[in-house]
Amino acid sequence: MRTICLYFEIHQIIHLKRYRFFDIGTDHYYYDDYANETGMNEVAERSYIPALNTLIEMAKKSEGAFKVALSISGVALEQLEIHAPAVIDLLHQLNDTGCCEFLCEPYSHGLSSLANEDCFREEVLRQRDKMKQMFGKEPKVFRNSSLIYSDEIGGMVASMGFKGMLTEGAKPVLGWKSPHYVYHCNQAPSLKLLLRDFKLSDDISLRFSNSEWAEYPLFADKYISWIDALPQEEQVINIFMELAALGMAQPLSSNILEFLKALPECAKVKGITFSTPTEIVTKLKSVSQLDVPYPMSWVDEERDTSSWLGNILQREAFNKLYSVAERVHLCDDRRIKQDWDYLQASNNFRFMTTKNTGIWLNRGIYDSPYDAFTNYMNILGDFIKRVDSLYPIDVDNEELNSLLTTIKNQGEEIADLQKEVAKWHNKAEKEAVKTSKKVVAKKESATKKAVKKAITRPQKTAKKEE
Fold this sequence. Notes:
Layout lengths: L2 E8 L22 H30 L5 E5 L1 H10 L1 H12 L3 E3 L14 H19 L5 E3 L7 H9 L4 E5 L2 H4 L7 E4 L6 E5 L1 H8 L14 H9 L7 E7 L13 H14 L3 E2 L2 H7 L4 E3 L15 H4 L2 H11 L2 H6 L3 H11 L2 H4 L18 H22 L6 H69 L1
Parallel strand pairs: 1-2, 1-8, 1-9, 2-3, 4-5, 5-7, 6-10
Antiparallel strand pairs: 6-7
Helix pairs in contact: 1-3, 1-9, 2-3, 8-9, 12-16
C-alpha cells in the first residue's frame, strides 16, 4: 500500500545586532531582541498557530488515519517559550492526538556535522533529551540541519542509536533511482534513509500560490492523482518542508490550509495512507544502500553545502568559529554555551553567500555578504576573547587534548560507577523484597496458627463439659 510521509520543520533564526569593531571587549551581548520578538510573533500569528490548529483538526477528524512528523530546533524552542508560548501549547495538543511524531535535529540548527564530531554529538543528544522531556517520547528518527547528509554523517547518526534519517532526494546522488523507496546508509545498514521528493514538496511550499505556474490553481484531488499515477512498486512519498511555508511563503489567502485539509480524504479515495517516519523505517525494508561521499542538502539547485561554505568569507568565519570548539566543550559557563548555540546557526553563514541563485535572499540587517561577514567576525572576535579568558590560547593542543581525554575518562568512570550503584541498588531491592516476603510468610503462619487455636479451643472446651 502506498503511503505519504508528511514532515514539517520549525526553526527561527536568532537575529544579531549591529556590532562594531570598537565594541569588542566591552559589549558581550550580541542580539537584536526587538527583531527576535517581532519576527517570532509574526511567524507565529501568520503561520505556526493557524497551521498547527489545522493539523490538530485533521488528526482529530481522521480518527488516527492522518499522520504527520515535526522537528524543532533547540534555539527555536527557546524563542517560542519566551515570545510565543501559545505555539508550545498547540504542539502539546498535537502530540496528545497520537498522530504526530517528533524528530530530533541539532540543537543549534548549525553545521557542526561538517566540522566537529564531538560538538555534533553533544548538541544532538541534548536536543533528543529536550524532545523526550517535552513530548514524552525519545525520537527514533533524525533530521540534520537543512537535510545535510553524507556517508560519514550517517555513520555518526547511527552510532547514536537512531533508526532512520531524513535527507534530500538529490538528482546528482540518486541518478536514475527513485526517491520513493527506503534506502540505507552504506556505513551503517541499520540506519534507514527517507528521501525527500523535492518536486512534490516544492509544489506546495514554493509554487502553490504562483498564478504563473502551469498547474495553478492546485487542488488536493489533482495533487493526489499525481501520487496515484506513480508506478505501483514506488510505495513511499516523502513530502518535507518548513512549517513557515504555510502562511509565510504561501499566504493564508491562497487557501493553502484548505488544500491541506482536503488531502487525507482525497488520499483515502485512492487507497493512499499517511505514515510517520518511524512507522515506515520499522515496516519497510531497504531496497539498496545510498552512496553519498560528499555532503548534500535541500538548499538551492546544487543541493550541496555551497550556500553556507561556498566562498572564502564563509569558510574563514566557519573555521574561526570551530577553532575554539574544544575550549567551549570544556567550558561550563551558561552564557558562553548559549552564545555558542546561537553563533553556530547556519543562517549566519547563509547571509554571507555570494551565489546568484535567481531567488531573492532576505539578508536581514545586512546590505551585502561582506557586511554580514564583518558584523559576524566582530562578534566572533569578542566571543573568542571571552573563551580565551577561560582557557588561554597558550594552552597548546596537546595539553587541551589531555584535558579532554581526562574529562572523557572521568565521564566513563562516573557512568560505570552509576551502573554499579544501580546494580547494587537492584540487588539490595531484591534482598529487601526477599526478606519482606519471609517476614510476611512468618506473620501469615503465626496468624494461621492463632486462627486455628481460636477455632479449636471452643471445640476442646465443649468435649470436656460432656
